[in-house]
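Minutes, structural biology subgroup

Action item carried over from last meeting: produce the structure token record for tRNA (guanine-N(7)-)-methyltransferase (Lactobacillus kimbladii). EB confirmed the sequence was re-checked against the source entry. Recorded below for completeness.
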Amino acid sequence: MRLRNKPWAVKLVQDHPESVIDRPDPSQKINWSKRFADISKPLEIEVGPGKGKFITTMAEEHPEKNFVALELQMTAAGMILRTKLAKDLSNLQILCADAANIASFFDSHSASKIYLNFSDPWPKTRHEKRRLTYKSFLQKYQTVLQENGQIEFKTDNAGLFAYSVHSMNNFGMHFDFVSVDLHNEKDEIVAANIETEYEHKFAAQGNPIYALHADFGVK
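Output recorded by EB:
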């Protein structure tokens, strides 16, 4: 979902290069040891975090981990940055770049988890390759994730969910958790779930939230 352009976001991003990596050269790996105070912490990445409610909440609740928000839209990056600064989240970095280049920005097998929350469904068949659960993206995630790394995926779009299950299954992934109505799961699962802005909106409209956790098994 494209956000309305906010001129303040561009200036905020430009004023905080210590927190945002703006459109880096994909031919060079990023030295994350210079971006985080403690690089030994587990690294988790959210691809397409939107306004950033999920990733900023995760960073706030889990100071024992490092987080990267990989977001293409400058306005969204600015919104995430504003929250990061307000909450002084030193364990969160923002990478303003195309997710298609994710394997270029991280060392192989360096991340413990990748989150895909309410990604654009790209419903037209001719746009299949743009879906974040298309096989070429899965291959890149496999490169970035550690051997026991996991993808956590949520959507309100039944078509994208069905496609993603099929795509991941064909890729040989293992499913640790699958739900077609996340908000009506067991209490402990619901309590552990951190909502995104879109998730809250969609669920309030009575839409079921689909979710899965999957890994690549032994590489």
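Discussion: The beta strands are 20-22, 43-47, 66-71, 92-96, 111-117, 145-155, 174-179, 210-215.
Next step: EB to file the record with the rest of the batch.
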